[in-house]
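Pipeline run #58 for the internal structure catalog. This entry was flagged by the ingest filter as a single-chain record with no existing model, so it goes straight to prediction. Upstream metadata was stripped on purpose; only the residue string is passed forward. Reviewer on rotation: M.T. Logging verbosity set to normal.
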Amino acid sequence: MALTLTFLGGAGTVTGSKYLLSNGQDRILIDCGLFQGFKALRLRNWAPPPVSPADISTVVLTHAHLDHSGYLPLLVKKGFRGQIHCTHATADLCGILLPDSGHLQEQDADFANRHHFSKHQPALPLYTEEDAFRSLKRLKKHDFDSDIALPCGANMRFLRAGHILGAASVVIEWEGVTVAFSGDIGRYGDPLMLDPVPPPAADYLLMESTYGDRHHDATDPQAMMEDIINRTTHRGGTVIVPAFAVGRAQSMLYHIGCLRQAGRVSKLLPIFLDSPMAIDATDIFRRHADDHRLRDDALAAMDGNVRYVRTGTESKALTANPVPKVIISASGMATGGRVLHHLEHYAPDPRNTILFTGFQAGGTRGAAMVAGATEVKMHGVHIPIRAEVLNMPMLSAHADQAELIRWASAMRRAPRQTFIVHGEPQSADTLRQQLQERLGWSCTVAEHLQTVTLA
């Protein structure tokens, strides 16, 4: 029977990645992400799944970010009983990301109930920390570049995607058809991550398009960071860095460590990493030396004199501390986490700087602030934004248009059909045009809940 492919998420948006391959009897779900950003997208997380989780045979993860893995606890809670295949580092990162996600959702629901600002009585979490731990028991770890036989008769291989630690592109051969899933494609020449490796060939390709319509700024990130940190602290302010706990937090630590070593930023300036998850992710980063470029001396520079903040009490004291400093805290789009409490305190003061470090999905607080919002709602209260707000898109862990074309051009032959996914509408359609005009590929932009037959 011919394979079918259904886009359950990550189509028309950069979040909620879920792609279902079926041969009519068995079903493979590639990625299992949460929808984030606009409320209309977030509501999809609460809707009944379009496919019964109990009918899904296997799940394959490209990487650990929540827009690719964060729905797993709910999938298992609703009846999925198969294995979840991923790389070793992805499994380790899911081990901290998913329980933290459940814990934060429980905290947010509790906060909403105590302060009576939710429309739902009582407010409930999408899933709990316990649900997340239950889903982790189904993870099965694999090496990159190894042949993996799935129970449904398909064969699979993970290729390095370069996006974050453990990130992979996935190639699946099933029923005589080869389907490749790009996952999130990383940068070429990144100081931390290894270069992405495209599949040699595929009949069908699902390709991400986060930055399909733009090129990254060529500005030296360390020069920009030096100016921002020194300028902010000189006026008595603090730099708040909302950063993804996995990937971007480690990148910020690396660049700031280089600046301090070179004497371009004072070694006396306090640097805080206020995210237990980011601290744990940094430890995982050290354990997977084969998955990144940094050697011991660079890791030492990244870690030098950074103060780790683990407890809530320490975090509250840090918020109240008036000394100029740099606080790196999750989440990267200011959608949740401890960074919200820091933003509530520091955003109204024009001496401070809020420094974002890459893509901000539509509908997030990060996107609103980068676009110039004068106030943002946090914990039911409208907070004025008077601090300087800046973004450093060159720190993005996503390939830009030129790098996406470079990745695609390295395939030995054109796919029969390429489906553009994981991008806002303009980015996705621009990449479609570029692939058609420059490479002569047959491309289409995927639509949410669309099903296609793969002949």
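catalog note: Residues 117 and 380 are 6 Å apart (CA to CA).
catalog note: The chain has a mean pLDDT of 94.
status: ready for reviewer M.T.
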